[in-house]
Amino acid sequence: MILDKIEKLLDEVQNLNAHNAEEIEALRLKYLSKKGEITTLMADFRNVPAEQKKEVGMRINELKQTAIERINALKEQFETTEGDGPAMDLTRSPYPIRLGTRHPLTIVTNEIIDIFSRMGFVLADGPEVEDDLHVFTKMNFAADHPARDMQDTFFVEQSQTGDVTKNMVLRSHTSSVQARFMENSQPPIRIIAPGRVYRNEAITARAHCFFHQVEGLYVDKNVSFTDLKQVLLSFAREMFGTDTKIRLRPSYFPFTEPSAEMDISCHICGGKGCGFCKHTGWVEILGCGMVDPNVLEQCGIDSKVYSGYAFGMGVERITNLKYQVSDLRMFSENDTRFLKEFEAAN
């Protein structure tokens, strides 16, 4: 009788079929689980007469092996069929897409570029690894100027001949872009040069060994300091609000004469004085001045015919003022919690 049952089950397992993984698992449980049909047969084996044990045992093993092979074949067939289908379920709801945001320095740089572009300035660019000739010499820096010292500038390669103009450095300002542009162009010139610059500074909440600048240059006939003041006033009001006031304080730069530092009225206290502006009512944002005639001559422009003005600002400083960021190290730490605060500023 047990042989008849084995033959019946053998016929069943040879013709097993399923349409999905759930049905395959149900067949496995029916025939191969601890409470399945084949396990029950093996439990009944002890009641088989001794003279039939050999034949019955062989048939049970054949049944078990056939069941295993058939169920595995169904699994392989189902997996192959599933792999031929689409890589994703097109009927399901779409995954939420997390959008990123522009970096705050990029936001402010683009805003500065937009303001000056509407005044007629065009973009100019140059290398970050630059020669001393364009970074310092053509900007009227003396050969023994401290900016050429190893403690102030990152040197990439130093001249073996002692000629400082052939030293290679990481540019310390984007004025080198102005020098290259003036070498290859004749006035009128009206450019802005944004980019990253490097200086050997101790990294603190107010200083870093690299930062970003936007410098501007205008060279033409009869350019005056008044023109410079009006451009900078227009910029300050566009960037910080129409009530913004500016003041120019005398200063010194090798590449401009006369030179000035520009302050804006503190937009936090409205010029009344607060902790942010150190109770002065003013905050410094950039340096500027009339282009030194030596710079024009070094770059192949006749200083007796043409004059010009230049200005330069740190993007981090403008961003600090605009968004009241207390520590400029946050701009380079890639902390997404900080960066997400600027999603609405895009």
UniProtKB/TrEMBL annotation:
SUPFAM superfamilies: Class II aaRS and biotin synthetases, tRNA-binding arm
Domain Aminoacyl-transfer RNA synthetases class-II family profile: 114-341
Top-level taxon of the source organism: Bacteria
Coiled coil: 3-30
CC cofactor: Mg(2+)
One Pfam family in the UniProt entry: Phe_tRNA-synt_N
EC number: 6.1.1.20
PROSITE patterns registered for this protein in UniProt: AA_TRNA_LIGASE_II (PS50862)
Entry's localization field: Cytoplasm
Subunit-level organization: Tetramer of two alpha and two beta subunits.
NCBIfam families associated with the record: pheS
Name this polypeptide is given: Phenylalanine--tRNA ligase alpha subunit
Taxonomic source organism: Xylanibacter rodentium
Lineage, highest ranks first: Bacteria, Pseudomonadati, Bacteroidota, Bacteroidia, Bacteroidales
